[in-house]
Amino acid sequence: MEKLLSKEDIQDILENNKDNPVFKYYGVRLMGADKHSYKDVLAVSDKNNLILIKGNEDTGNIHIKERHNFWSTKNYIVKNPKGEIVFQDQSRFPRDIAPIEFIKIADEIYSNENLIVDNPHPMADLFDLFIGEYQFDKPKKVKLLLYKRTKIIHSLFLSRSTYNKKRVSKFPFSRGTVEFRYNPETGINDTLIPYFDTTPEPRYCIVIEKHPKEDLENILLVIYKSDEPEKHYLKKIGIRKLIKFETKKHEEVTYQHGDLRPMEKIIMETDNDIKTGKINLND
Q: Where are any strands of DSSP class E within 166-281?
C-alpha cells in the first residue's frame, strides 16, 4: 500500500514550518538531510513557493529520485493488463538533470494555464495535475502532481519515457549492479553485468573477460537455470579489442547505465531458444 501524506501530515507541514529557513530565504536547500523525517521540507521554489518534502518511496523527493532520476537503478514490478508480472517502465529525466533541479522544473510547470481541470489521474481526488513544457535539450512535456489544493509536491516526471534507459523492446529482464572481479593468478579482469527476472532471481550475466596482454576482450553469457539458479552454463558471444576507460568509475557508469541493446538482444534470442527447446540446459 502506498505511503502518501495524510490530511494530518499535510496540515502539519503547512502549519509547523513558519520558522524553517527554506521559507524565509530563497536559494536555501536542505537536500542532503538524511536524518530528517518524511514530512520535513527540503526546498521551497523561488517563484511559486512550491514545497518539496523529503518524502518516501511513494511521494516527495525520495519518490521522484528513485523513480525518475536518470541514475536510479531501482526497479518496479507490476501486473500488466494481461495479468503478467513485469518490470514497469519509468520515465527518466535527462542524465544531466540533478535532483536539486527538480524544484526548479516544478516551478516552471506550475501555472493556471497548465492545470488540468478534468484530471485523468486515478487518484484525482488527492492530487492536482499540471502539464507543461520544460526546455531540456529540446522542449519536453512534464507532469507535476501536487496534493489537492496545496503547493506540496507529490511527484514530477516526464510524460514520456524519452530519456529512459535504452533496452530491447519487451525485454523481460532487469540489469543488476555491475561488479568487477580480478584473478591475480591469470591477471584477467572481469566485468560482470547481471540480469534478473521478476522473482527476482539471476537469469543471465554478461561477462567481459579482459586480457590486457593480448589487448582483447572475450564476451561471454552466463545462463542460469530458472529452477536451479546455482547451476550455470556459458555461451560465447564474441571477441573484440580491449576497451580502455579513463577510470573504473567511468567503466561502471558505462555498463550500468549505457546502451547495451546489442548484448541484450542476444540475451532475448537465447531466452527464446531455451523456451522453444533449441537450447537444452539439461544436455
A: 174-175, 179-183, 188-196, 202-211, 216-224, 232-241
- Give the three-state DSSP class for 8: helix
Select from 240, 231, 230, 232 the least CA-distant residue to 263.
Answer: 240
Q: At what angle do helices 60-68 and 102-109 cross, to 10 degrees?
A: 100
Burial of 185 (0-12, 13-18, 19+ CB in 10 A): exposed
Domain boundaries, the chain: 7-158, 174-276
- Classify residue 111 by its DSSP letter: S
Verify cis geometry, omega within 30 degrees of 0, for the bond prior to 200. yes
- Give average pLDDT by consecutive 10-residue segment, the chain, 283 residues: 91 78 57 70 89 94 94 87 85 91 96 92 91 94 96 94 73 94 85 94 95 93 83 91 94 93 95 90 75
Spatial separation of the C-alpha atoms in residues 196 and 199, rounded to whole Å: 8
